[in-house]
Design a protein that fits this description.
about 725 residues, Rossmann fold, 5-stranded antiparallel sheet, alpha+beta, 4 domains, 16 helices, 7-stranded parallel sheet
């Protein structure tokens, strides 16, 4: 603990020193928008290629300088070279006063011989390492414009660019759920909770089913216990009621400061989603317009990566995504991306706010990017419009100011209630908005998920998939997006008055309200069963099906009698016990894979689901691939066979009958192939060895001569080898 505080305090001091010195170097505009003349001396981020291994920056050096490792020799040699270049070219600096100030601050530090050293910065006042990526070391250096060009020429320097300002949108966090449906071990309930909390612990509200909005917040009692949430932000204050349960968890910060609402939304006792999670604050300085220096951000990430990531038990919240110019801020972009990748590889999960600029975040914008939200290894959180408490059913839409688009992974409430320590140490209640609060809300939910599922080692991708399976879908410009939910979807009415049945109506049994054999009650019952399995329920007034998404072929093998398919990205199986279609049940005599998939596709369209690339049927041969199909085609056509294929990946090889050799299936037809001018009919038989359509296999329960005949007739009509069979002239051996 003492070591952590020393490390934390030192990093804060380092960041403070960087910001105090940088403050003199900030570019501003006068009231009449005339640009003030820019000073050419600046702090620069330098990215150095490192092939010698991991370099510890925020760790007390254990060896004397006579026993340095290869990576330490490499880093310190670079520092010495740059330092020598600066000393020999002090005249190149415009602001000699500032240069002297930096030099004196370094000399003062060196004179404190009795102080214990907790960083591995090297001996220069002008340049020091701030973060280590997988194969890079990032430095912060004060250089003149002339010297920056010289440093860029050094061997192993990948790139160099000035430290800039990134405007940060304001902050955010969340956690909840209910036992039976959510599969929690124990339940906790917070009565009359904030809207942003109660909203994410229940399903989609429909006033015609539940009479009065339920303001309770339901969540697992573990509530993130033992899980670390690291908040990288501007300020922290943990000395008030919201964090008074510090005997139940670890609450630490680098410095005390006012107006820290982000941590409150993540883990506050009254306003947070994970009130038992550990909170570790990494403090950054922010200027009066809400901007951070890029070198501070990279340094903070470097410290987190080096000291604070506990594998599969750490969430890092960054509520300050900002628009970055890729060309001019490439070191900030690639440096922070590299360190975030390192954090992810160590088992950390990074969550960031999408921003409040009404901007569509497009992944492949070559000039600008919202950093860090658009990085692949970050869960990017947008906001929904939850400001109007009198119109709860209408909250499932994008908040007007929230960024959106394919770069946003999930959405959470945009408006929150919070408290903070104000001037003169008074606790001040506040209502505030922004995706900066949507993000910590999500981080808190993630902490609760981890604390409830200790047997699962969550990664960024598996956690996002877990959240999306439990999220509530809504529409943005014709595309389905998802709102955060903690796993509890049962909607209760505050006055206990209901007008329906099922999950959205207090989970009341449908049989009490209607004849148990009525179709509406049956549909609701089927939907509840599908919801319990985290399935996708599709239906119209008469038909229904439950689709279960699977991650790997192992699960497909164990789907037993269910039909499975892929949309090109994910694999699904139709739960035949929660489906009205007999064609989707392989144990049924009416099984027909093609018709099943066709029914599912059409029913999906009626439910507003548009599969991006159609649906491909995965038959009983789950290891089917295009290479297998191509081999079967070659063998079929090698013996003058006709290869017939549908759009679902099913195919039939029919070959000219030469006796017992090709009569493997027992299904044959007489036909005249239209590609040749035959006057007589020829017998064609299904070659089972190079076909995969079950209805054409006599030895399977699904085998059906008449259906196979119809399939051959339909598919051959689309083939160059159009076959003209007559129904009265087919033969079964």
């Amino acid at each position: 603990m003492e070591s952590f505080i020393k490390h934390s305090f030192l990093l804060l001091i380092a960041l403070l020193l960087i910001n105090i010195i940088n403050a003199k170097n900030t570019n501003t505009l006068s009231n009449d928008d005339k640009e003030i003349e820019e000073v050419k001396d600046k702090y620069y981020l330098i990215t150095l290629n490192n092939t010698y291994g991991d370099f510890k920056i925020y760790t007390k050096p254990e060896k004397s300088k006579r026993h340095l490792s290869k990576v330490e020799k490499f880093v310190f040699s670079f520092i010495d070279d740059v330092h020598e270049l600066i000393v020999e070219n002090k005249a190149s600096y415009e602001d000699q006063e500032k240069l002297e100030e930096i030099e004196n601050s370094g000399k003062l530090r060196k004179r404190r011989n009795n102080e214990e050293i907790y960083t591995n910065y090297g001996d220069s006042e002008f340049i020091n390492p701030i973060a280590c990526g997988n194969n890079t070391v990032i430095f912060n250096a004060y250089l003149s414009e002339t010297l920056a060009k010289e440093v860029e020429k050094f061997d192993d320097v990948i790139s160099i660019s000035p430290v800039t300002k990134v405007h940060a949108d304001h902050n955010n966090y969340s956690v909840d759920d209910i036992l039976n449906e959510a599969k929690w071990e124990k339940l906790a309930v917070r009565p009359d909770a904030d809207l942003h909390l109660s909203l994410i612990s229940q399903g989609k509200i429909k006033r015609n089913l539940a009479n009065e909005y339920d303001t309770n917040y339901y969540f697992p009692r573990s509530a993130g216990k033992g899980v670390n949430i690291i908040v990288i932000d501007s300020s922290f204050s943990f000395d008030y009621f919201e964090f008074s349960n510090n005997k139940d968890r670890r609450v630490e910060c680098m410095a005390r400061f006012i107006r820290e609402q982000v941590s409150d939304i993540a883990a506050g006792l009254m306003h947070g989603t994970a009130p038992r999670a550990n909170i570790l604050g990494v403090s950054l300085l922010v200027d009066k317009v809400g901007s951070y220096d890029t070198n501070d951000v990279v340094a903070a990430l470097g410290y987190v990566a080096e000291h604070l990531v506990e594998a599969h038990n750490t969430i890092i919240n960054m509520s300050f995504s900002g628009d970055a110019d890729i060309e001019n801020q490439r070191d900030y972009m690639y440096g922070s991306k590299d360190v975030i990748n390192k954090i992810t590889e160590k088992g950390g999960i990074v969550v960031a706010s999408a921003g409040n600029a009404k901007t569509e975040l497009i992944p492949r914008n070559n000039t600008n990017a919202y950093i860090p939200c658009q990085f692949k290894n970050v869960i990017c959180v947008g906001g929904i419009e939850n400001s109007n408490t009198t119109a709860i059913p209408d909250v499932y839409k994008r908040a007007e100011n929230s960024n959106y688009g394919s770069g946003v992974d999930i959405y959470a409430p945009f408006h929150v209630d919070t408290e903070y320590i104000g001037l003169e140490s008074f606790v001040v209640p506040d209502q505030i908005r922004g995706t900066s609060f949507s993000a910590p809300m999500t981080a808190g939910i993630i902490a609760s998920v981890i604390s409830e599922n200790r047997d699962i080692k969550f990664t960024r991708d598996s956690m996002l998939e877990y959240l999306l399976k439990r999220a509530i879908p809504f529409d943005i410009e014709g595309k389905t997006q998802y709102t955060l939910n903690n796993g509890k979807h049962i909607v209760y009415s505050q006055d206990n008055k209901y007008n329906g049945c099922g999950i959205l109506s207090g989970n009341r049994p449908c049989e009490k309200l209607c004849n148990r054999n009525s179709n509406n009650c049956k549909l609701q019952k089927m939907k509840d069963q599908c919801d319990i399995m985290d399935g996708l329920f599709i239906h119209d007034s008469q038909n229904y099906a439950c689709l279960i998404k699977y991650d790997n072929d192992y699960n497909l093998f164990n789907s037993k009698n269910s039909v499975c398919f892929t949309d090109g990205a994910s694999k699904y199986c139709v739960n035949h016990s929660i489906s009205i279609y007999d064609e989707c049940n392989k144990s049924s005599g009416n099984f027909n894979g093609k018709k099943c998939i066709s029914n599912i596709y059409n029913l999906s369209l009626q439910n507003g689901i548009h599969w991006q690339s159609g649906l491909k049927y995965l038959n009983k041969v789950f290891n089917y691939s295009t290479s297998v199909r191509d081999e079967d085609r070659q063998e079929c056509e090698k013996y003058k066979g006709v290869f017939l294929e549908n759009e679902y990946g099913e195919y039939i090889c029919v070959t000219h009958y030469f006796g017992k050799l090709y009569n493997s299936s027992g299904y044959c037809v007489y036909a005249i192939p239209s590609i040749k001018e035959y006057s007589e009919k020829i017998m064609y038989c299904v070659d089972l060895h190079h076909s995969n359509m079950d209805i054409c296999n006599k030895y399977l329960k699904q085998g059906d001569f008449a259906k196979c005949y119809d399939e051959i007739h339909e598919l051959s009509s689309k083939s160059l080898y159009y076959m003209e069979p007559a129904r009265n002239e087919y033969t079964e051996f």
